[in-house]
TrEMBL record, chains A, B:
Protein name: Acyl-CoA dehydrogenase
Domain Acyl-CoA dehydrogenase/oxidase C-terminal: start-end pairs: 272-432
Positions of the Acyl-CoA dehydrogenase/oxidase N-terminal domain: 33-149
InterPro entries: Acyl-CoA_dh-like_C_dom, Acyl-CoA_Oxase/DH_mid-dom, Acyl-CoA_Oxase/DH_mid-dom_sf, AcylCo_DH-like_C, AcylCo_DH/oxidase_C, AcylCoA_DH/ox_N, AcylCoA_DH/ox_N_sf, AcylCoA_DH/oxidase_NM_dom_sf
Residue ranges occupied by any Acyl-CoA oxidase/dehydrogenase middle domain in the UniProt entry: 154-257
Organism listed in the record: Sphingomonas kaistensis
Cofactor names: FAD
Length: 558, 558
């Protein structure tokens, strides 16, 4: 099924949700980029999605070979400048809003999640080097990373240090000449090794001698695969994982310094690794939320196309006994409209968050903080939506959904990583109740809810806003355990409220008779009538507290 | 991770939910069977689960080769008489309650869903031949099908006839000697061909000459792979599907009569195929619900074991800064308890339904009808629970959950077929609101709710019972479209209410200090505090009607 990137929808969201005209003077570029990205994603990247899945990345002692076609598609990515949209102009970027770059990334995610991960990781590194790198790093590395000539990676995780980054053991020892000797092993390194580019720039978290324990003692290093003198650095990909999905994205175990030590350079101050990591990570978290949006879009299109073509059974209660396309059956319609409503909701939430960060970059501190509040929502709920919509997509296909050739199953397999990486969704929920709920003395969160309240009209949305405030009050007064026990359902409630607000606003603006406007109103209507009340049903769990959870030993649960 | 079948839990549910002592005089046999089945499932069947997934069934023009170990495990299945428990004594069965056989099937499902499908399909055939077969069919085939020596299949689906069985085209023409010539092609035939047994008994739906159109014109035929004279019948497996999961279960395209015609014999009267099919299917639907339970049990055990062993991060707000096993973190506990609560809830609902059918077989007509009401609930909600719990299980594992070697991902891949086959969950929801809500003038459904109301105590359960009755009233008065539009959320509400009722009852009975009793109370408590209010949140969707669904053309949703 050929993907059709939702250009009209993206433009509409950028206008009515992001206010893109307030972020760039050049409105023509918006259309040009959306259409160009759609053409590239549909024509070059999506056709590789299935071969990427069936063949996958292949490891050998010499390195990792990408599937046929990926090299050419990546060459076109670099040539087209698709990685440069939101990158700083001084590094060769176009300096355009992140929210516009987000639309492009969504298209790549929809087309081929495994392929899109390479530029996605690179974007995090651009942010980190741009914010914390030295002048020479910005001069020598940033332009080639921005162009995509040298893609970049994030080397955080070690076997004993997953969510607990502070437990990492990779070592960095000064060479005396400004460089450092890096030794250690990293796991789950996305695109840690591949043959799409001549060089790969690894951003590696490591511990310097006598560094304090935990997160306060870690530092970030730039460790290129090929050193400035053209020689190979002492690093290699020891193996890649055999995974449920995103088979074309090599998930590498990286060995640094097997031959004595890899050479790296500090990014930012010593022991400043966590701050630099969060610069990378926050960008990556929003982008992972966009993965959910992209997968949801692709899965929805595939399901709708199937439902339009698959003829089965007469309409119940109809006069005709002729079989109809299954899209006409009410429960299939329910599934399709649910997919559409969730996809549109997740997109609105994600673009809105990127827009807030864009405003923050332009000096609006309140918007920057709102972006911080929204980041865990976009990451966790966006990826939950990706999985739910992909799973419904399988269901719409019936037996064909379980047959791999159809492509519906791949969407679910690919989507299922997104709630896990870049901070599990449980970590996002903890971030929401632990940090974001109290940000700026609580004003950042409360300001968001106040803005929502000032605009929402549907009684269901008002009821959900009431419930969100009630739960927020409870959780703020609660101890750590009770707060964390309710964090996940609370995050979902906040996400649905924010998405519902933005969908209702769009429905008001979509007052015309075009199929697009009709769809917008139908999707918003479904979201408010069905999805919002479901979120209200989560309030009890959000306030249930932790006592019950600890009333039994975990051993007894097995 | 070695599976430990939940014998204590199964015994408890059989006692407090099923009332097994009212269904059999021989209570000792219950313990013996539960323990024996656990030993067989854990020792012989579960160890083949991973090889079944990685190697899978292999097709060649000569037939389908099963993975190493499956032949020996199946031989032990036959020798151990594991297929005979609930089969009629006159056919060599043990004549024990279906609810007891259900516990055994749950164990096999938990151990290896792909393996368990072979006996599961056979059970449907035993019911159909037992109810509708001729005396000679019962004499010549049933004992060997019951023993497992000759496993059986259900041949319903054709490319144009999935959910709409009446659209099938396979033909049956009388030979004049009581046999029929069968020609046609069937798809999605589970265990349609394999090398576990010398013969396979296909039950095939076909259309006789001049039969009326639609479901009223189809008949059921017994079509053995090997004919009574020892010659091969004219049927073959043309290919098998490449699927998301249950790789060791061959999903066959079957060609009947390529060489002129396969030989078959009518089961029951001509044009009586639908009735015979529903005999097979109703049994199979409950058994598919049990697949959800089995997968949920296995996924929960695997996640708990991982969470107990995986040490990561200190407890938030705790005095110690030492990392703890992740089961100690509140949100991980929430996931584990949710898995446990959903698994226990789905098990209680499924066993209860089997128990009602057992009572029906013993002459209790009200119980038989209640079993009919419960069948779509068990099938749809049980399989939804299987998928949800398997997905949470991946999440508990973090990055390891996405790596296939861990085994968590396989549970989701395997579980995902269950909402589709034996009537999609949407078909189940349509069955609930279209047939079961009005069964016996509505008394069958209303009697269930009345019994629930008479026993439930928790206000959340009472509120859900109120909502279920309110929605039932709405849907009974609604037209086809509105009724079907609300069918799926209504089914979930009914399922959660019934499961919550049975869990609350068990929690009252589990008043001791044992870890098992504590777990029962904690799981029931979580279910009522968290899952029941979520179901209440579905009421708005159940009553939303179809208008919104049809306010836009499906084309516009792509």
């Amino acid at each position: 099924m050929p993907l059709r990137c939702p250009v009209e929808e993206q433009r509409f969201v950028l206008e009515h949700v992001v206010g893109i005209h307030e972020l760039t003077n050049d409105v023509d570029i918006v259309d040009a980029l959306l259409e160009g990205a759609a053409q590239y994603a549909e024509g070059e990247v999506e056709p590789l999605n299935r071969i990427g899945d069936t063949v996958g990345a292949k490891w050998s002692p010499e390195g990792v070979a990408m599937p046929q076609g990926f090299h050419e598609a990546y060459r076109q990515f670099v040539e087209g400048g698709w990685g440069t949209i939101s990158a700083p102009e001084e590094a060769g970027g176009q300096g355009l809003p992140l929210s516009l770059g987000a639309a492009v990334m969504e298209d790549l995610n929809a087309a081929n999640l495994a392929f899109a991960l390479c530029p996605m990781l690179t974007m995090g590194a651009i942010e980190a080097i741009g914010a914390h790198g030295s002048e020479s790093q910005k001069r020598d590395y940033l332009p080639r990373i921005v162009s995509g000539e040298w893609p970049a990676t994030m080397n955080l995780t070690e076997p004993q240090a997953g969510s607990d980054v502070g437990a990492l053991r990779t070592k960095a020892v000064p060479n005396g000449d400004g460089s450092w000797v890096i030794t250690g092993s990293k796991i789950y390194i996305t695109y840690g090794e591949h043959d799409l580019a001549d060089n790969i720039i690894h951003l590696v978290l490591a511990r310097t001698p006598d560094a304090p324990a935990g997160t306060r003692g870690i530092s970030l290093f730039l460790v290129p695969k090929v050193l400035p003198d053209g020689s190979c650095n002492d690093l290699r990909c020891a193996s890649i994982e055999h995974k449920l999905g995103i088979h074309a994205s090599p998930t590498c175990t990286m060995a640094f310094g097997d031959g004595g030590g890899a050479t790296g350079w500090l990014i930012g101050p010593e022991h400043g690794g966590m701050r630099a990591m969060f610069t990378m990570m926050n960008n990556a978290r929003l982008n992972v939320g966009l993965q959910g949006v992209g997968i949801a879009e692709a899965a929805t299109q595939r399901a709708v196309a199937y439902a339009l073509g698959r003829v089965q059974s007469a309409r119940a209660g109809g006069v005709s006994k002729d079989a109809v396309a299954i899209e006409q059956h009410p429960d299939v319609r329910r599934m399709l409209l649910r997919m559409k409503a969730l996809t549109m909701g997740a997109r609105a939430l994600a673009y809105y968050a990127f827009g807030q960060i864009d405003r923050g970059h332009r000096g609006d501190k309140a918007a920057a903080m709102r972006g911080d509040v929204l980041t865990p929502l976009v990451k966790a709920w966006g990826t939950d939506v990706g999985c739910e919509v992909a799973s419904i997509g399988i269901q719409v296909h019936g037996g064909m959904g379980f047959v791999e050739e159809t492509g519906a199953a791949q969407h679910l397999r690919d989507a299922r990583i997104a709630p896990i990486y870049e901070g599990t969704n449980g970590i996002q929920a903890a971030d929401l109740v632990g940090r974001k709920l109290g940000l700026d003395g609580g004003l950042a969160f409360d300001g968001l809810i106040a803005d929502i309240r000032a605009e929402i009209e549907a009684p269901a949305l008002v009821a959900l806003a009431d419930a969100v405030e009630m739960v927020a009050t409870t959780l703020r007064a609660a101890d750590h355990d009770d707060r964390l026990a309710g964090s996940y359902p609370f995050l979902t409630m906040c996400s649905v409220l924010t998405a519902g607000w933005l969908l209702e606003r769009q429905a008001r603006a979509a007052s015309g008779d075009s199929p697009f406007h009709q769809t917008k109103r139908a999707a918003a209507g479904f979201f408010i009538a069905v999805v919002v009340p479901e979120a209200l049903g989560l309030a009890a769990g959000a306030e249930a507290g932790a006592e019950l959870l600890y009333s039994v030993d975990a051993e007894a649960l097995a």
